[in-house]
# Entry
Amino acid sequence: QVPVAMIGFVLLCWVAVLAYRRREATTATIALLAILAYLGNTFLCGAISNPADRYGARIAWVLVWALLVLLPDAVRLAVRGRSFAAD
# Structure
């Protein structure tokens, strides 16, 4: 689950930045909420109890779920930013 969570976190950060630059409020909001939920869980579990894999595994699926939901929007935003016109 660790590689999946890391890849999901990095890609979700990319989606959030891309959506923010393209002024897509809904996509950026969902991505940022998932990122903040993950970081908040990490901080609270690390501050209150001993860090353990089980606490990260409980919320890691949120990153993957948000990424799968936002993937069509991310692809659309990435493609829309490129110009395919021949010069």
About this structure: The two ends are 45 Å apart (CA to CA). The CA atoms of residues 40 and 66 lie 16 Å apart. Helices lie at 2-21, 25-48, 53-80. Residues 83-87 have pLDDT under 50 and may be disordered.
